[in-house]
Amino acid sequence: VSETATKKTALYEEHVKLGAKMVPFGGWLMPVQYTSIMEEHQAVRKNIGMFDISHMGQFIVEGNGGRSLLNTMLTNNIDKLDVGQGQYTFLLNDKGGIIDDLIVYRVGYKEFLLVVNASCTDEDYDWLDRHRPSDARLGDRSAHFGGVAIQGPRVTELFVNLPERNHIVDLEIDGMPISMARTGYTGEDGVEVFFRNSDAAKFWNAVLEKGKSLDLKPCGLGSRDTLRLEMCYPLNGSDLSPERNPIEAGLGFFVDLTKPEFVGRDVLLKTKENGPREKLVPFRMKDKGPPPRPHYSVFENGERIGEVTSGTLSPSLNWGVGMAYVSAPHAKIGSQIEIEIRGQRFPATIEKKPLYKKS
Amino acid sequence: MNVPDDLLYTESHEWIRREGDKIRVGITDHAQSELTDVVFVELPKIDRQANAKEAIAVVESVKAASDIYAPVKGTVVEANKALEADPGLINREPFGQGWLFVMKIDNPDDLTNLKDAAAYKKQIG
């Protein structure tokens, strides 16, 4: 992948100090790992890990028209949110295709925080702004705010009085005003914390220090990807794209078709009625062997039925796993499929979500 | 980054140790560090003949699959089966137990096309 990464988060110097391997991602220079993807993955599953998520975009929507802007632009129902609550949702194009997946938090009665994917920040902003009524304000605070995800079962030992699942609260820690949300992308208990860039290094180092006794590890994008894939959480750009809609991605739960109107609704209604042509399914390799990778072809009984969008060796299972779009009639749990790897086909089974469950 | 002086190197990050009319081949410390945790290795078959710069093995990390190339023309005579059970050897001992394969080389003069340690150090900066 050739990307020109020019941007550095407020935590860049901290990553370099810790010896992180920095790679371009979504226009940013981000840590892919500090010591080892496998070790960092296990730290999150067993203890606790901290990720820099400052590359993600942060928007604030305010004003009388804010609620209606978001309910028209996002697939989930904003009205289901109490103040202090967040939800996973999609921003679609006119064809129902996915521009971005994001979390929207209702931080005040008429105030919302949107946390969006780094590489989509500009496009999301433009698309929202183009539909913005005059009584809604849209602000991009990404340049001034950063964040970290602190994930793992021992998070409850790190912080007391955590917000409830999917809730967000404003707190002050060591004089730093922060927002803390009980959300994440790893399948473990954890929080995502948002702060001013001027507090980023101080907050990061305070957590590293406090987390020492809990074996907290700084974690890079490498383990973020393996952790999310074990849970079958989609990655925009791999599993989601403007050519795919949430129904095909198996994420209809985050689409409220009872809302009278939102961008992409007509297409999604049709997809729901007729059934999607292809579906995103998780799979697990049958034997030990080469791990599956994006773009590998998927076969069933000699017929090509689809393509892998995410694949890796699952560090928790020590086994090859992935997700693939396959033609809908073949998308059955338990189906025996084959993944073509360098000209050779390897057996795999379509599985239920998630690919990894805590024992 | 460790770059032993007594080895030869390719631009594609293989190291080569001459052993008479054979060469032992692995990937460099720099390469294993760039790849991150190696989780799978596809070794070349014994007796496979290959030209210089022909892909004959694959090293896969958590992140990606990378081709490994024959440094010079020759025939594979040995492959490191230990990597099948423990691919992490490549990360832990890239110049030792993490070797990949041994080739009998057609023409020792071909080795003059490879880089010495100084040239490889310069390449990786």
Characterize this entry briefly.
The complex is a heterodimer of chains A (359) and B (125). Chain A has 359 residues and is an alpha+beta fold. Helices cover 20% and strands 35% of the residues of chain A.
Report on this model:
The complex is a heterodimer of chains A (359) and B (125). The mean pLDDT of chain A is 96. Chain A has a six-stranded mixed β-sheet, with helices on both faces. By secondary structure, chain A is an alpha+beta fold. Chain A has helices at residues 12-17, 37-46, 66-73, 121-130, 155-158, 197-211, 221-230, 265-274; strands at 7-8, 21-25, 28-33, 49-52, 57-62, 85-92, 98-108, 111-116, 137-140, 145-151, 168-173, 176-181, 190-196, 217-219, 278-285, 297-300, 303-314, 319-327, 336-341, 344-350. The two termini of chain A are 36 Å apart. In chain A, helix 2 (37-46) crosses helix 7. Chain A has eight helices and 20 strands. With 125 residues, chain B is of the alpha+beta class. Chain B has a six-stranded antiparallel β-sheet. A three-stranded antiparallel β-sheet of chain B has the order 4-6-7. Chain B is globular. The chains are: A alpha+beta (359), B alpha+beta (125). The interface between A and B is medium-sized, with 16 and 15 residues.
